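#struct-help
A.M.: can someone run this one for me? Single chain, 92 residues.
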Amino acid sequence: MALRNLSDDQIETANQENIRITEITESKSNTPLGTFWKVLTFIFPGVIQIIFSGTFKADGYDRKAKELVRWTLYGFSFYLGLAFLIFLIDSF
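D.P.: on it. Structure tokens below:
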């Protein structure tokens, strides 16, 4: 620090900026997925939602990305279960 010839004010400003950036990053990382996305993904599960999940992850929205994948899997499971039930009912 001494070699850079920074004043105490400059160091304090840099520390405050680092704290602010860290808070913004943590806030983005913990943002939940909205209800609209959950419903849309459940009704229309597919590869497009997985691509959106990657976009969320790249933008720092880790929780949104995980929840989008989870709701896509819920949608796939629902439709697979429904197809299995229809198959069982149809076989009788």
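A.M.: thanks! The mean pLDDT is 90.
D.P.: also worth noting: The first helix runs from residue 8 to 29.
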